[in-house]
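User: Fold both of these, please.

Assistant: Here is the first one.
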Amino acid sequence: MSGSRITFLEGQSAQPQALDRVLAHVRRQLEDPALDPLRAARRPLLAGIGASYAALAVPVEVLRAAGIPAQRVLASEIENGLHGFDTDLLIGVSQGGRSSETIAAFKAAEGVPTLAVLNVTPSPLGELARLTLDLGNEPDSYASTIGFTATVVALDLIAGAVAGRADDPWDGIAAHTAAVRARAAEVVAALRHRAARCVAADCVASGASRVSAEEAALLLREVPRMPAAASVTRNYLHGEMESAGNTLHLVFGDGREVELARSLASAGHLTLLITTQDVDPAESLGVVRLPRTAPSVRVVLETVVAQELVAALSDERGVPIESFVFANDDTKEGGVDAADFELASRVAAA
């Protein structure tokens, strides 16, 4: 079954209300006793591919903070089984439930219970899983908007259930999302012309915000077709930043990231800092200030900023957002989704 497709811009506009719906939907599912095996897990292994893999850094951070050992792996790393992994629950993420690598991983997971986190139901991955948790078949864009941020919400709630967290941090997410998008639009408008002429981008963060850096790098490649890479802050400082030159820098964070952003901008490199700190913008430095929230909520808000940036760069560079270049027929069970071809045709005809 295919999920319904909307455009990237439609996804941005619909995102606040969609996140509220997903939040209520996932909370209800987690009250079901059928998911008791999830709450009993003590050594979860989380697997995904592409954007789904990026999102998995959120539950890893939440679980480790609660003293529960957790790790994420690319689903392709366990296509041949779980040898060498000490786990009591395999959690696989695939929004459409058709990712070939995650399906192969579930087929190879012998003797370990599996949980599929999905948007589209029913799906091939869901049929393989012992347990499922879904987002409610929310419409999503090809370069994911709602699907990605909603997955982050769901994964935080899952991690909270495993950790025994009393309350979750998501109340007010719709209002936060709308406010941050409006703030980001103002900042991005001032730098989009110069940013669109950069030859590449570096996305830098630490902790849970590694999700935001990895997703931003993927969106920059998918949407305005800008070469981009994601780095962990401390690693970036150890030599990776030396290649700066006609490059765009997205820096997410409040600690060493603030000084890093200022250093890059003072050297003349265009930098966008996404932070909760009160930092003044400067020549070559744009600042989007976020409200102080839990790390998982912050990831969603950081992603909203990245979405606003890539939409603007796509327009500035004259690249239609939905006009993907490559359609690999071996990454999804059943081949390329017909809905994506239909959407591309709509964009081309517009």
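And the second sequence with its predicted structure:
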Amino acid sequence: MSQPMLTVKQAGPLALIQDAGRFGVGHLGVTQGGAADWIAFRWANWLLGNPLHSAALEIVMGGNLTLVANQDVRLAMTGADLATTLDGQPLAPNASFLMQAGQTLVFRQPKQGLRAYLAFPGGLDAPAVLGSRACTAREQIGGLHEDGQPLKAGDTLTWKGISASVRTLPAHAELPTAAISSTPQTLRLDMVLGSQAAHFAGRSLFDAFNQPWTVDQRADRMGIRLTGKALNSRLGGIVSEGIPLGAVQIPPDGQPIILMNDRQTIGGYPRLGALTPMACARLAQCLPGTEVRLQPISATQAQAAYRKQLQGWL
């Protein structure tokens, strides 16, 4: 019998192999990478009984990404609703499903959210680079061909395990896409203020947290720009320093840039603070034009919320 696999018949704009990320190599200038909506990513693996860090497929926008199975396999899909169909029949996200030999899975366009995660039994099989299979295009590492590139037509996806028993999401599961409605609303993004916040004018601090910001078209896995009333820092430039996930940089034009998984490892713009990991996952699901509000919380509150989120998988 041939090896179970999915073949890419048509490539979408951005389908990347991602896992939990690449850590311990920032001093080499190598960024974190990993699933942008790490919460949906973990639930996809949980649905199949995989280790939560197992490599999966992160699918952005859909764009008619088309996969064909050569054998029966149980997969799990979470995150964005990309109008996905299995042999032409609509497939709801946040559940596992059986894909039979010869069937075709198509991811079309966003109906809710931006990024979908497709998990495979035991995790996707791809070479590990610096301890991770995560694709980082800018650094040309990770993925099927160890070049950080998205899937292309003709690629084949294989996995490490066998089809698992059926699981359903528990009642306490909260995915970032649940906070994003098809009707306009302002999404709250929790943020911990940083040491440089004191160097922003009082009016700018007020504006930062009392106006809606709009997710700009200039958004990718490296950073997401927000547009609104400009913020002003008295610092100007600073000596470059390490950049954490979710850092809120304020460049000279005063429009915040939220630095995401594929961010540079150091930077020299003043920082207002950093989004919490849960807020980063929410922002990763926001289409351009989405309105968001920054909400200041304490480090203690952020840590408690993060621990509560992690307990959901215990």
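Residues 197 and 272 are 5 Å apart (CA to CA).
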